[in-house]
Structures are given as C-alpha cells and as structure tokens.
Amino acid sequence: MVEASLETGRTHQIRVHMAYLGHPVVGDLVYGYKKQRFKLKGQMLHAKILGFMHPRSGEYVEFSAPLPEYFVNILEKLKHNI
C-alpha cells in the first residue's frame, strides 16, 4: 500500500507515476499490466481522505472512507505472495 498526494491535479497523475516507477496500480489495464491476477471491478485506487474548499461557502470540507472489503481481501492475498 502506498500513500500519495496530488500535486498538479493532472489526469491519471498517480497511475502514470506509479507505472513509471515500475509499480503500477493493481487493476490498471491502461498503465499497468494487461494480464491481471485478480478479477477486479476496477483499479485498486482509493481516496481514504478527500478534502477541498467548498465552492460556495469557501469552507474547507473533508470526507473519509474506509477501504472497501474486497480491497482488504486482495491486500491479504498479495501479502502472502511476497
């Protein structure tokens, strides 16, 4: 698991940089490996915390979400393969 922060807001920034470093996001068929080890609904890319300035009120708002259960299950499988 990796913690990343967006700096530029460019499209696919995290996915492109992780692939460039040789560690593509699991499930990323565009920048990652075409052959996947797990049947996924999409990429294993999750925003645990998302915050921004509200456009109307100007206040900072922040939301958080736990990892989806299927992410946790796949992470456990990956841990045992390393």
Automatic annotation (TrEMBL):
Family membership noted in the UniProt record: Belongs to the pseudouridine synthase RluA family.
Species of origin: bioreactor metagenome
Enzyme class of the recorded protein, top EC level: isomerase
InterPro entries: PsdUridine_synth_cat_dom_sf, RluA_PseudoU_synthase
PANTHER family linked to this entry: MITOCHONDRIAL RNA PSEUDOURIDINE SYNTHASE, RIBOSOMAL LARGE SUBUNIT PSEUDOURIDINE SYNTHASE D
Statement: the UniProt record of this protein carries the keyword RNA-binding: no
Lineage of source species: unclassified sequences, metagenomes, ecological metagenomes
Name of the protein in question: Putative RNA pseudouridine synthase
UniProt keyword annotations, A-Z: Isomerase
GO biological process: enzyme-directed rRNA pseudouridine synthesis
EC number: 5.4.99.-
A GO molecular-function descriptor: pseudouridine synthase activity
